[in-house]
Amino acid sequence: MNSELNNIPHKRYNILTGEWILVSPHRTKRPWQGKTEENKSHKKETYDPSCYLCPGNTRASGETNPDYKEPYSFINDFSSLLPDSPEINFQEGLLKAESERGICKVVCFSPDHSHTLPLMEVEDITRVVQTWKKEYLELGAEEDINYVQIFENKGAIMGCSNPHPHGQIWSQSSIPTEILKKSSKFREYWEQHKKSILSDYLEQELEAGERILDENEHFVSLIPYWAVWPFEAMIIPKRHLQHIGQLNEAEEEAYAEIIKKLTIKYDNLFETFFPYSSGIHQIPTDGKDYPEWHFHMSFYPPLLRSATVKKFMVGYEMFAGPQRDITAEQAAARLNDLSPIHYSLQ
Ligand SMILES: [Zn+2]
């Protein structure tokens, strides 16, 4: 990389969205003040009688969870989208609205209330990957469902009130904005080069090495060059796959393994249960071909300098565009310096 960029304000281009991010590395000349939380034990009960996600408990809807032993998914009792909304197309002068149909589900990753992805065994995370895959294929096959968003909000700071390990899946009739942006960039590159832009990007990143976090036979995790969040990361399959439904058995396990390793590093950074929003971007399920698409998973963690200092998207970022202080290379170096063993087990 051009090393001058480490010292001067500059902007970086996101090849997947076509947007720019402002980087101000000269503001981080002060020494790293990372601090850790006082309470390191985080000992939690494996079962919480008041948790609506624990096996055997009754939810607000009155339904009772089965005594599940593996990942368990169900329709969200407070779904943001409904499958049977009436079709409405409203336009009055400059006011425009359309109805949106969808199905929202919750996926419990484990029956164990005290678990989180970094503390789960690779084979148990593999079962979560298999559940995501099944849900993507099943929901995507529904006539009215043209896009399936799999995501996890982890930690109270990300608006997640229940510590039971779980994620969500929102599936809907229209294709959302972020996917439309990425589709157009994937297509643009495909038409010019007949290759996936992420395959070429991965090749360049593996050669450079400075933003790589981890690599196994089938997946790579890295801090993207254009990262917005301080420790934002991406997991990319080496094979040019359009969606997780195409993963073979070995890839499912390799995917689970790289998720575990990344989330352990995250927890070790501030010795806390590191909050983030993570999500999988893959092709729409509208029955069309998207050969240009390359599925990937992104992690957007809000923490900046400690377990309590959060990055805020305010001021310039609200009005102009995203900005960061530590560079993607510095973030990768910090994570790479940490132990691969979870701090609670050391
Ligand atoms: Zn629970």
UniProtKB/TrEMBL annotation:
Gene Ontology biological process terms from the UniProt entry: galactose catabolic process via UDP-galactose, Leloir pathway
Its EC number(s): 2.7.7.12
Gene3D superfamilies assigned: HIT-like
Catalytically driven reaction(s): alpha-D-galactose 1-phosphate + UDP-alpha-D-glucose = alpha-D-glucose 1-phosphate + UDP-alpha-D-galactose
Named cofactor requirement(s): Zn(2+)
UniProt entry keywords in alphabetical sequence: Carbohydrate metabolism, Galactose metabolism, Metal-binding, Nucleotidyltransferase, Transferase, Zinc
Domain of life: Bacteria
Matches recorded under Pfam families: GalP_UDP_tr_C, GalP_UDP_transf
PROSITE patterns noted in UniProt: GAL_P_UDP_TRANSF_I
Cellular component terms (Gene Ontology): cytoplasm
Any one GO MF annotation of this record: zinc ion binding
Enzyme class: transferase
Pathway recorded for this protein: Carbohydrate metabolism; galactose metabolism
Catalytic residue list: 166
CDD domains cross-referenced by the UniProt entry: GalT
Domain Galactose-1-phosphate uridyl transferase N-terminal: 7-176
Galactose-1-phosphate uridyl transferase C-terminal domain mapped to chain residues: 184-344
Cofactor binding remark: Binds 1 zinc ion per subunit.
Sequence positions that bind UDP-alpha-D-glucose: 27-30, 60, 76-77, 153, 159-161, 168, 311-312, 316-317, 323
Sequence positions that bind Zn(2+): 51, 54, 113, 164
InterPro entries found in the cross-reference section: GalP_UDPtransf1 (IPR001937), GalP_UDPtransf1_His-AS (IPR019779), GalP_Utransf_C (IPR005850), GalP_Utransf_N (IPR005849), HIT-like_sf (IPR036265)
PANTHER family: GALACTOSE-1-PHOSPHATE URIDYLYLTRANSFERASE (PTHR11943:SF1)
The family this protein is said to belong to: Belongs to the galactose-1-phosphate uridylyltransferase type 1 family.
Protein name: Galactose-1-phosphate uridylyltransferase
Organism: Christiangramia sabulilitoris
